Amino acid sequence: MDIEKYNDHISQGVALMAQANYPAAKNEFEKAIAINIQSYEAYIHLGNACANLGLLDEAIAAFKNALVVDPASGEALYSIGNIYLLKDERLKAVEYYNKADESGFNRTELYQILAAVFFEANDSAQALRYITRAIAVSPFNGELRLFKANVYLAEKKYEQAIETLDEMQKILPDAFEAYDLRAQIYCGLKKFDEALKVCQIGCERFPDDANLALSKLKVLVEMNDDEVAEKLLEDMKSRNQYASVIKEAAIQHSIILLRKQDVDTALAVLLEANDVLENDADILYLVLDIYAQTENYEKLIEYSPVMLSVDAGPFYESTAKYFYAHALDKVGRVDEAKVEYKKLTSELRKVTIETPSFYEGYIYRLLSHTRIGEYDKALELADYLENMYPERTDANAFRYFIYKEKGDLDSAEEQKNLALAKNPDIKL
């Protein structure tokens, strides 16, 4: 083996990787492997080069070759897990991450990724297990403690979240993110005065931080203290804080304005933010919802396709399509509306098969079937909704709507009474 040539290819490949010249780096590592087929180092480098090029199957092959040379390599196992995660094959990713852990690859990043994977899968117990292990490895990493607090917050375990933040602030007293999260927790507990106090302390300590000002704004809006909230909005604008948090600030401002029934100004605020953000799905959804609530069907027809151009996922996409069909129906373009409703039922059937937990998909299917007179199909979906959430009033409320559209007023009244028995406050 020409060790000198081998070393040259490795060093040149590493230098090329640093310059992000991944094709040339890949070529150098392949030349190194041709000289030494048993080079663990070269296979690891080759796998990283392939990963950066998006050649995911080749990356896995390279890392698996590294495992042939060193079967207990935690680095190779971890790297394979990363590639499977990029391929969105989460079960395979978790399998290899666990193997890496068992091999002694006890790294913060491994536990952090596993925690995130389980949290996204709604397995909070496992997420907490792994984030706790990550904290044990890196106790001064504030991001890990924030993640742990967020897991508790998602589970509505507010006291545990507060305890986690207390621990964090003992170690990292200047972590301004803790103030924001603590305020969210107190809001969840409906302790708005405590939340406001936390925000005030944070804003005094970090007066230029726009996120803390935003947290304070959210608390004031939750408290219905609209006058103080509007003053804070003006202050944020004068301090050049508003622009950096324009999305959330505009949403909060719109809530205040809608409470005052100032719909036009609320829309103007949201549309201005949307222009700055170059079409934001959350903002557009609020705009569409306001147009639907105010029966401004021409604007619904105008803005629904804008939402569809954003590529924001099935909820926003199906909402925009339903609003579009509904608006066409309301302005008298009935034949066009029927075509859109029919298309939506077909599209959403596929989506709900692929993602059975997409609850809103069933609702839009039900509504669309009802609008085109396919009442039996709509009632089948109402039964399905009831099976999913028997304690909710949804199924009865939708049956009321379906029977009313069908002209079966006795059955509609029966479903209305059943809904009211479950929730006396429901408005039908």
Plain-language structure description:
The chain is mainly alpha-helical and 428 residues long. It has a domain at 1-105: Serine Threonine Protein Phosphatase 5, Tetratricopeptide repeat (Alpha Horseshoe), CATH 1.25.40.10. Helices cover 78% and strands 0% of the residues. It is built from 24 helices and no strands. The chain has helices spanning 3-18, 22-35, 40-52, 56-69, 74-86, 90-102, 108-120, 124-137, 142-154, 158-171, 177-188, 192-205, 210-222, 226-238, 246-259, 263-277, 281-293, 297-308, 314-330, 334-354, 359-371, 375-388, 394-406, 409-422. Helix 9 packs antiparallel against helix 10 and helix 17 (281-293) runs antiparallel to helix 18 (297-308). The longest helix is centred in the last third of the chain and has 21 residues, at 334-354. The mean pLDDT is 93.
List keywords for this structure.
mainly alpha, Serine Threonine Protein Phosphatase 5, Tetratricopeptide repeat, 24 helices, 428 residues
Could you give a short description of this structure?
By secondary structure, this protein is mainly alpha-helical.
